[in-house]
Amino acid sequence: MYLPSFQYLAPKDTGELASLLSDHGDKARILSGGTDLLVQMKSPGLRPDFVIDISGLDELSGINFDAKTGLVIGSAAKLDDIMEMPVVKEKYFALWQSIETIGARQIRTMGSLGGNICNASPAADTPPALVALSAEVSIAGAKGDRVMPVEEFIRGNRQTALKKGEYLKSITLPVPEKNSGSAYHHFRVRGGMEIAMVAVAVQVVLEKNNKTIKDASIALGVVGPTPIRADDAAKILVGQKPSEDLLQTVSQACADISKPIDDFRASAEYRKEILQVLVEEAFDEAYIQVAGDSK
Amino acid sequence: MKQVVQLNINDSPYEVMVAPNETLADVVRRKLGMTGTKLGCEQGDCGACTILIDGRSHLSCITLAVASEGKEIVTIEGLEKDGKLDPIQQAILEKQGVQCGICTPGVIMSAKGLLNENPEPSHAEIVVGMSGNLCRCTGYEKIFDAVEAVAAGEYDDEKTSQAGAE
Description:
Strand order of the largest sheet of chain B: 2-1-5-3-4
Number of helices of chain B: 6
Helix content of chain B: 25-40%
Shape of chain B: globular
Helix content of chain A: 25-40%
Oligomer: heterodimer
CATH architecture of the largest domain in chain A: 2-Layer Sandwich
Structural class of chain B: alpha+beta
Distance between the termini of chain B: 58 Å
CATH architecture of the largest domain in chain B: Roll
Number of domains of chain A: 3
Number of strands of chain B: 5
Low-confidence stretches of chain A: none
CATH topology of the largest domain in chain A: Uridine Diphospho-n-acetylenolpyruvylglucosamine Reductase, domain 3
Order of helices and strands of chain B: EEHEEEHHHHH
Mean pLDDT of chain A: 95
Number of strands of chain A: 14
CATH topology of the largest domain in chain B: Ubiquitin-like (UB roll)
Structural class of chain A: alpha+beta
Shape of chain A: globular
Order of helices and strands of chain A: EHEHEEEHHHHHHEEHEEEEEEEHHH
């Protein structure tokens, strides 16, 4: 199984990257880990004339946490390196869980967070977690930088907001409020090298009493072409104490706005059923992180 | 357009003419004759082509050779030292973690990468850590046993040399 011919370009810094992108634009694809790009190029379809390798760019590989600005992850930072940062497991647990489920160890060693987002697969693991954690992306281009939420960046199946000459620079996750927890739950059949058929990420913030919900965000994955931010469903939780009835209402609201497809992996009807279970599970796990297991 | 790349494989320098679309797996196997690295699915699913790059396991079927310059590459051929198998190789043999053998080089390199990152993995960490390598023969248990034995120090240099002296 051979790769088609292309010209390989390895810019030395982001300045050179920007000029290569403005020169070659639509005919180029950015190579980071290769776990999606090269696999797609091996099957019929994707035939870029230029492959621009950003994996050696230190400027795009940093992972830095600051107690004020939050977690800034360079677009080429490796998934495995992100998982190994203690602050990620501690403060951004949903992201940690979503990375842990990707492929297998080899894939996480090679693949980058920016790649997982830019590949914009409807079944990608990290985007729902990033959406629930209110992450934003920084896009660099000749006309300056743009910042937007992850849910706006991913525009459709394999489509992003990147315009010609632009590239994804970094992903920023704000510092979670005090008393908050998050979780990412997904459903799949095999234990490894498998993609999710439904996924849910939840972040909850509790009041000082550690019982009443102060704020919540819910993101639904694999039940539409892009991750869905279920704000209306999340609002139902605010000001409430968790109960079975409340969670059923919320999970039903999530199922109502989901748009899953029928395919060989699962029917749409089944995905909606599973989605509701996952909403409750992910909420429970996020809630217990703050409130403790008092049930 | 072909170009010369300098590859550091198993502590030896190699100068190879490669085209940008050649994978590291193809270069190692076809141009350098090191056929220990196997190709299975060739699309990053099965783990048969696993090698170490800078100590960590990578899939060589979806790694470009031109992108591998200046990195420390280790293939299955690089594990044996002075006629002595690496502990994980010895363990896989003795615990009978090999049947047909096609997955074995990848399994060994993957185990090596896992143990580099986590020298004392739990059973659960071994199961998760080896999930990128498909084996259709052994049912995995014997492979896990071998990794566990190495992690437990059963194949440490001192012990094997002591055993040899007895």
